């Protein structure tokens, strides 16, 4: 990040405290600059809202590459509403908090992703689906065919990151993670249950897609896991993202 750009954003955020600031990072030619906007939200301390006029003005100056806002009294994480806004805006979010700028890249469409192990794979899809729903999980380093090298990445981490295994797998619900064991001694593939016998997953040499949870996938199911704090999440956000790219 260009130091001049960083300082311009931090300085503007400071002038708006205790309110959340907002604005855009705009690219024109070789120049990247910050366009501050007025926060139009009713509760400016806890929320931000940018007017259509300010958006059009920033867009007329060049290509909008990021939306900037601040959490002067909060944590350096995006709220569920922030994530919903980011999904609609389809740009990176830069969050000012604690005199630092935290960058949250936009989430690629959940459907139609090209497979690249460790970058765009079944675990990436798992993480991004839950990110849109309001939960953050780490991005583990994982070599291709890690399951052949004595690792058990899914089972070693599910419980540690707030998931519990379902005893009654017939009670599967939207958002549950289905671990599958395909040509391996440990579960090495994950899918997200979408309801109505459909799952979202990403297989090697395939685009990410919705699939019927039956036959082959049902046969290779190892276990089903539910996030313990699922009631705090909003699965309509990733589901809306899927619907958007299905239409």
Automatic annotation (TrEMBL):
SUPFAM superfamilies per the UniProt record, alphabetical: Cysteine proteinases, JAB1/MPN domain
Domain MPN: 1-126
GO MF entries: cysteine-type peptidase activity; metalloexopeptidase activity; zinc ion binding
Keywords on record: Hydrolase, Metal-binding, Metalloprotease, Protease, Thiol protease, Zinc
Gene Ontology biological-process entries: proteolysis
Coiled-coil regions listed in the entry: none
Keyword Cell inner membrane: no
Listed Pfam families: NLPC_P60, Prok-JAB
Occurrences of domain NlpC/P60 (ranges): 89-228
Gene3D superfamilies linked: Cytidine Deaminase, domain 2, endopeptidase domain like (from Nostoc punctiforme)
Keyword GTP-binding: no
Family: Belongs to the peptidase C40 family.
Protein name: Phage tail protein
């Amino acid at each position: 990040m260009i130091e001049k750009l960083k300082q311009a954003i931090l300085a503007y955020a400071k002038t708006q405290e205790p309110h959340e600031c907002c604005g855009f990072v705009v690219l024109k030619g070789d120049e990247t600059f910050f366009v501050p906007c007025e926060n139009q939200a009713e509760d400016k301390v806890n929320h931000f809202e940018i007017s259509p006029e300010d958006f059009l003005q920033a867009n007329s100056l060049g290509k909008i590459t990021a939306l900037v806002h601040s959490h002067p009294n909060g944590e350096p994480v995006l709220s569920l509403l922030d994530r919903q806004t980011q999904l609609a805006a389809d740009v990176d979010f830069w969050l000012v908090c604690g005199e630092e700028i935290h960058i949250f890249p936009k989430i690629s469409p959940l459907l139609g992703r090209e497979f690249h192990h460790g970058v765009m794979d079944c675990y990436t899809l798992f993480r991004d689906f839950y990110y849109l729903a309001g939960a953050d999980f780490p991005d583990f380093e994982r070599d291709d065919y890690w399951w052949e090298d004595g690792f058990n990445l899914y089972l070693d981490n599910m419980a540690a990151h707030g998931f519990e295994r379902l005893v009654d797998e017939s009670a599967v619900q939207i958002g549950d993670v289905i671990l599958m064991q395909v040509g391996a001694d440990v579960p090495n593939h994950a899918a997200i249950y979408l309801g109505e016998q459909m799952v979202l997953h990403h297989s090697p040499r395939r685009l990410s897609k919705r699939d019927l949870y039956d036959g082959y996938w049902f046969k290779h199911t190892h276990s089903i896991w539910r996030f313990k704090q699922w009631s705090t999440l909003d699965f309509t956000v990733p589901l809306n993202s899927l619907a958007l790219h299905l239409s």
